[in-house]
């Protein structure tokens, strides 16, 4: 090893700060200050003429006791939890296959997973629109088997389908990363000791891929809880989530304090869960360090 | 592949069907002759592509807004995020650990929150929705991907090659420029492409910060599908699907490996 020519340390620190400063400044101006502003607005008084009256109140939060808002929060959390469960069930087989596939097959598999991920959520919602339309594929199949034409859009199952489809890659990618780290001979050992396919999954894959499962589940939950394009298109007037309420309060009814309060609620419901999940997954990794 | 190979293979094929079906029907319907979302299509035609390219509002949203915003976002985000990643990997300074987490926050804050906050912020600053507000917002959501990509690229470099250049008389800066930067080419290319795609497919932020003159392609599609849904919406979606598929395939080909998110 050759010695590195080290300039003096203060000089180095200064360069580091100078290079990081533009991005730090950017995030402060465009992320921190706007989010701080929203938090402040949520305690301001509603005004019919301006943005909001700078008179402090907790009236916006008191509205949370309203049955309408309680149902809204319950529906949002319910849809997010159901979406997460669906993604776990669909995500495991796919992630396991991708982690253990031959390289050429894996390349194709990732291509088919990543392309939909990068297509706009609107385009994917349009896909479900077309599938579930009165003249769409699902109705064609139903009618072929003699059933009546059904209205399949604008209900909760349609929203769940759309959200699971949208967020499945967020579950699969961390799971693949976790499962790849499990040496295949651990599975073989379990099999040689008499475990069947499900036994291997329950005793080996599941416990050793737990960190990937937690980070995938947290990602899916957060994205699902804050969805609003999918429920707006596939749920219509009937399946409203907090995101839709925020959008309407801001751009339709122009009730800034209420929109801000709902935004803060969404932060609590998502980033609160995110923080807990990350803490859990860290403890999980330490507790059962993978071989 | 083990673990009940046959049933696993069947499950995986089924799940890929679920993933791909909505995109396949969109492409199918876009070649429809009828003016409804009939699937299977009644006949094949390019009718909806013609009607799409006859709409100036579509061309404006696609080229003048979405592609243009994507390009500006890609360049600026790669600069901001690239410099930040170099600072994080190559230098030790107070607050470095905090900044490492801070630079990734736009990734964990749900985009509707960013959109709502930016909408209020721009209103407060009396900036009406324009190309500038759109690009400013897209740069915010694109930089974390750049930071992560360039960070990983820098960590993977072999420091001995750069040290050799320094020992042969190059300055640290010159060694970085001539030795490290060329090796970072793949991270930089994928950063630029990712930043472009983040901007190009974003809807959650764009709905709040794009104005009537700066409707992006996803926002255009969002309002079209709600008010007049004919297969020209599917044609526009098909164009996006094909573009994204080409980009992903290109990236995979260039790096001969899989790309992470």
Give a brief description.
Chain A is 75% helix and 0% strand. With 291 residues, chain A is an all-alpha fold. Chain B has 261 residues and is mainly alpha-helical.
Describe the structure.
The complex is a heterodimer of chains A (291) and B (261). Chain A is mostly helical. Chain A has one domain: MetI-like fold. Chain A contains 13 helices and no strands. In chain A, helix 3 packs antiparallel against helix 10 (210-225), helix 8 runs antiparallel to helix 9 and helix 12 (242-251) packs antiparallel against helix 13 (256-287). Chain A is globular, with a radius of gyration of 24 Å. With 261 residues, chain B is mainly alpha-helical. Chain B has one domain: MetI-like (MetI-like fold, Orthogonal Bundle). Chain B is built from 13 helices and no strands. Chain B has helices at 5-30, 47-53, 56-90, 96-102, 105-108, 111-124, 131-155, 159-167, 172-183, 185-201, 206-209, 217-227, 232-255. In chain B, helix 1 crosses helix 13 and helix 7 runs antiparallel to helix 10 (185-201). The interface between A and B is large, with 102 and 100 residues.
What brief labels describe this structure?
heterodimer, A: 291 residues, mainly alpha, MetI-like fold, B: mainly alpha
- Roughly how much helix do the residues of chain B carry, as a percent range? over 70%
CATH class type of chain A: Mainly Alpha
What's the CATH topology name of chain B?
MetI-like fold
Rg of chain A from C-alpha positions? 24 Å
- Can you tell me the number of structural domains of chain B? 1
Major β-sheet profile of chain B = none
Order of helices and strands of chain A: HHHHHHHHHHHHH
Low-pLDDT stretches of chain B are: none
Overall pLDDT score of chain B: 87
CATH top-level class of chain B? Mainly Alpha
The CATH architecture assignment of chain B turns out to be: Orthogonal Bundle
Helical content of chain A (DSSP H or I, runs of 4+): over 70%
Q: Biggest β-sheet of chain A: count, sense, barrel?
A: none
Total DSSP E strands of chain A: 0
Helix count from the secondary structure assignment of chain B: 13
